[in-house]
Amino acid sequence: MSRKHIRIDFHTHIIPEKLPDLAAKYGDNRFPILQKTCSCGAKIIREGKTFREITDQAWDPEKRIKDMDKEGVDIQVLSPIPVTLSYWSAPEAGMEFSKLQNDFIASVAKKYPDRFIGMGTVPLQETELAINEMERAVKELGLNGVQIGSNVNGLNLDDSSLYPFFKAAEELNVPLFVHPWATLGKERLHKFNSMYTVGMPSETALAAGSLIMSGVLENLPALKVCFAHGGGALPYILPRMDKGWEVWPDTRQTEKPPSFYAKKLYYDSLVYDPANLKFMIDRFGTKQIIAGSDYPFLLREKPVGEVIDNLNNLSIEDKEVMLGKNALDFLGLSEIVKT
């Protein structure tokens, strides 16, 4: 890629078209199954019900490239669909599912190296296996990061069992993309698609807050973590978190208030409204925000970076940083853009 300024969609999801039927193999219908409805569409079936209907954009790189060309996107960063995380499964089954997805994503990135960058997945229900697969994904497959869920079977990300994984990610310099899944309060989110509109932002804030307030980020200062959906509710509740840190000193696990560590995290730009983006910029600065759309799903921003483009009183340089450079810096790929 010879252009200095490029547009990258950091937040996109992909799934293998020929997804093995692990539900049948392991006798557990919680594993998602891909049921084709036509050559250009399918249903993701889970527990005997339609979880989501998808189009061939979710698996066909050629279709994705056509969309990218139409919308002015140079590169997509690929990551798994969160429903495939399957942390509830037996570790060996989770490892198998992670490997087949990582192999697929790596094959797409290898076939189209100028258009796609791959991020993998790991079986976080077993920390040692997760570390092994993370190492394989980056060292053998050439993936450039790992997507993880916002909790592991109800355990927040500050749980002591997960700390070795984060330590290994820091040591291996593997950036992590945290996406909400298995949201808190899901039993109350059945109406109005509230899981997506209310539950996921709340879940993301809890995930970020657990890493911040537990001291994980303080103890692992080189760890690179990006949170989906603009960090969910986190940017707006930080003052309340700081106040709690101030008035309850006996619960403190960090030397500085939460807002200090929140500024070290990265966030995608999927907040839709320029006013929200301006709020995030005021709170975190432009260097921590990465353009991402949630392609190819209904809640996606189209085209990616529209909220950045539409923000007034922002320099061209700052817009270009968020639209491309920050993604490359986060992924350790700044050399892609020649100056």
Automatic annotation (TrEMBL):
Keywords: Decarboxylase, Lyase, Metal-binding, Zinc. GO terms for cellular component: cytosol. It comes from the Bacteria. InterPro entries: ACMSD, Amidohydro-rel, Metal_Hydrolase. GO terms for biological process: secondary metabolic process. Pathway: Secondary metabolite metabolism; quinolate metabolism. Residues 8-333 form the Amidohydrolase-related domain. Pfam families: Amidohydro_2. It is an enzyme of class 4 (lyase). One of its GO terms (molecular function) is metal ion binding. Its EC number is 4.1.1.45. Signal peptide: none annotated. Gene3D superfamilies: Metal-dependent hydrolases. Belongs to the metallo-dependent hydrolases superfamily. ACMSD family. Monomer. This is 2-amino-3-carboxymuconate-6-semialdehyde decarboxylase. It comes from Lentibacillus persicus.
